[in-house]
Amino acid sequence: MFSSVYSENPLLAHFRRLEEELDEIFGGATPWTGGIRSLPPGTFPAINVGATEDNVTVYLFAPGIDAKKLEISIQQNVLTVSGARELPRDDAATYYRQERFGGEFRRVLSLPDDVDPDRVEASYRDGIVQISVRRRESAKPRQIAIR
Amino acid sequence: MTSATKVTTQAASAGDGKQSLTNAAPTTGIRPSVDIFESADGITLQADMPGVAKEGLNLRVDGANLLVEGTIGIVPDQKMSALYADVRSTLYRRSFVLGNELEAGNIGADLKDGVLTVRIPKRPEHRPRKIEVRSS
Question: What are the structural domains, with CATH classification, of chain B?
Answer without folding.
Answer: 5-78+85-126 (2.60.40.790)
